[in-house]
Write a structure and sequence with these properties.
Number of helices: 4
Structural class: mainly alpha
Radius of gyration: 49 Å
Largest sheet: none
Strand content: under 5%
Number of strands: 0
């Protein structure tokens, strides 16, 4: 059996545990349970926990991520505004086309209706002559023409 001995200072152990996200209370309990002196653990934990070396990088990472997210959000807002403007433009164009098509269809329908009414009026006016003419053509001639 091979025994490997790793010697780390209490400061290194505390820093490593805090960097891994272990709560300070859990670090304190664990080290005391492992046999470290309570006063020494509290002293190291206090100095390491508030040390700028452990807090600053994490703060910078969070701050950088926040800035990146803000930029990303701003870009998304700009894209959303562009898309919204495009959609509004398309809606306006569609409404204009609907209006033009409706007006054109109404105009054509009105023209067709006027022509149809004129045709009916013409038929009504000329119907008696047409019937008279067809009746005369069907009548036998009494006198033979030579």
């Amino acid at each position: 059996m091979i025994i490997i001995s790793v010697k780390k200072s209490i400061e290194e152990v505390v820093e490593a545990l805090l960097k891994e996200g272990v709560r300070p209370e859990a670090v304190k309990r664990s080290l005391i349970n492992l046999g470290f002196d309570r006063e020494q653990v509290e002293k190291v934990l206090t100095s390491v926990a508030v040390s700028p070396s452990t807090v600053e990088p994490e703060y910078r990472l969070i701050n950088d991520e926040l800035k990146r997210q803000k930029l990303s959000l701003e870009e998304l807002r700009k894209e959303f505004t562009k898309i919204k403007d495009l959609v509004n433009t398309f809606i306006n164009r569609i409404e204009l086309l609907e209006k033009e098509i409706s007006q054109a269809a109404t105009s054509r329908l009105t023209t067709l209706e006027a022509r149809f009414n004129a045709l009916i009026d013409a038929l009504i006016d000329y119907a008696p002559y047409l019937f008279e003419d067809s009746r005369l053509k069907r009548m036998p001639t009494l006198v033979k023409q030579e």
